[in-house]
Specification:
The protein is α+β, with helices and mostly antiparallel strands and about 130 residues long. The chain has one domain: Dimeric alpha+beta barrel (Alpha-Beta Plaits, 2-Layer Sandwich), CATH 3.30.70. Helices cover about 30% and strands about 30% of the residues. It is built from three helices and six strands, in the order βαββββαβα. Strands 2-5-1-6 form a four-stranded antiparallel beta sheet, covered by helices on one side. The chain has a two-stranded antiparallel ribbon with strand order 3-4. Strand 3 (about 55-60) and strand 4 form a beta hairpin. It is flat, with a radius of gyration of 18 Å. The two termini are about 30 Å apart.
């Protein structure tokens, strides 16, 4: 099953060059490990929230706003997409993701299974059959 590991950190948290280098080394090691196991589907950092654009649709028209969707203490900083055998394996890898902020004491990783399109179709068909029953 595919799992998206969403990395949340505080953009403005201070970090030393040593902390940054240690974090980068941790990411390189994790990417190498998951690549060697054949489960790494993708991993990328995101640019700061100041570069974000949010699009909402109101009355059928796009409403475009500079900045992130929501103001929060922690921001989405990047992701890993892994093909794991189960949630426990995904959690294991999530626990290895370096969090750059304040020596790694701030932030977290949200682990979410990816819903396959076939699952969506199945749910939709089930909902339709229940309505016609």
């Amino acid at each position: 099953m595919r799992y998206m590991l969403l990395i949340y950190t505080q953009e403005a948290a201070p970090r030393t060059p040593e902390e940054f280098q240690a974090g980068m080394a941790g990411h390189r090691a994790l990417m190498e490990e998951t690549r060697n196991r054949g489960i790494l589907l993708g991993a990328d950092p995101l640019k700061p929230t100041s570069t974000a654009t949010t699009v909402r649709v109101r009355d059928g028209k796009p409403l475009i706003t500079d900045g992130p969707f929501a103001e929060t203490k922690e921001q989405l900083a990047g992701y890993y997409m892994l093909e794991c055998k189960d949630l426990d394996e995904a959690i294991n890898y999530a626990s290895k993701i370096p969090l750059f902020c304040a020596g790694g004491n701030v932030g977290g990783v949200e682990v979410r299974p990816v819903m396959e399109f076939a699952e969506i179709q199945k749910q939709f068909e089930s909902m339709l059959s229940e309505q016609h029953a």
